[in-house]
Each structure stands twice: as structure tokens, then as C-alpha cells.
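Priority: low. Protein: DUF4386 family protein. Input follows.
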Amino acid sequence: MDERSWERVGAASGLAAAMLLVVAFVVAPGAPGLDARTAAVVGYLGDRRAGILTASLLVTLAAVAFLWFVAHLRHVLQRAEGGAEAFSPVVLVSGVSLATVCALSMVPLTAMAMLIARPVRVGDIEAVRVLYGVHQLSIGPVGLLVALFAVSTGAAMVRRELAGPWLGWAGMAVAVIGLIAGVGSFFAAPSGIVMFLAYVLGIAFALWIAAASVVMLLRPEVERVTAARGVFAR
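Result:
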């Protein structure tokens, strides 16, 4: 394949990641906050076990697809920056870190779904509570990594190094939501409001990635006729 085709594959991987993420939110909605009673957590896990396992798989697949998309962004930005290495390293590192943390955050959720499938004992309930806390507290790191990825990618978009400025400003808005959700989770153990912000962040991030992917699918960056400005050039 030529470079145009490879760029379309890279853009399509972002769209795939966004779609998988949205479906994951749909199949396992209504997770209680960390301040919920243990009985409510156990009840949620039991009632939504199939959906939770499906969501865990979908988020993991979304993380894999997102890694390909991040590699595509790195390639495009490195070319646009003409070797200045301004935003492309931050986009790469934050994107890889975000995918890794998201995938790892689903391991406790999968373990809980497995535990709840057998007769529940006192020890299992305690283990479920701890694992649920680990899963919920991942909102903090995920939110902050989303903020870093969105602000760095958005800044590159605003500078017309990628996609378009309007997508860049949308990315800045996603970054603000991520920052609020991420910082908030450290000061208020994921309560109802933090969980709501986490869902809003997930959907907003997925829609932003999907929009950027569609733009790059319709017009691969290699087809741009305007020369990219060097970030540090005067």
C-alpha cells in the first residue's frame, strides 16, 4: 500500500477505537460510585456480569486500536513539524500511557465478574470491594492522561498540523473535562458526580476521536497542500 492508504488505515483505527469505547459504555451502564454500599456493588456485579465482561473486552480492544491510531498521529505530526519534535513526542507518550492504563484498569473489573460467578463468601465480598475500589480509582490517572493527550493533540490541530482547528478547540474542551474528572477523583473518592463526569468524559473523548478519524479518512494528511509551519520557527 502507498502512504495514503496506510494513513487511512491509521485513521480508521481511531474510529474503531471510538466505536468500541461507546459500545462498552452502553453494555455496562450505571456503575455505582465508590461510596456505594457493598451490597449495591455486589448486586451490580451480579446483575450486569455479562455486560461487564463484554465491556472489559471492548475497552481492551479499543486500547489496542487506539495504540495504532496514536502511532499514526506520531507519524503525521513528526512530518508536519519538520523534525522540531514539539507535540509529537507528547502525543505518543500520553497516548500509549492512556491506552495502557485503560487496559489495566479493566483487569480488576474482569476479576470481580469472575468472583461473583460463584457462591459469594465473606472473603470474596472483601476482595470484590478492594478490586472495585482499584478499578474506580483509576478514573484519576485516566482523566489526567486524557487531558494531556487531548491538549497536546488539540494544540497541534489548532496550529493546523493535523485535521483542523475546530477539532483542536474541541480537544481542549475534552482536556478540561478530563482535568476536572481526574483531579476531582483524588479529592472525592469516585462519588455520583465523579462517575457522571467519567461517563461524560468517555463519551466526549470517543466522539472527538471519531470526528478526527473521519476527517483524516476523508482527507489523509499526506494530501495537504499547505506546508506545515515549524513549531519553533520564527
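Residues 3-222 form one domain. Residues 225-234 have pLDDT under 50 and may be disordered.
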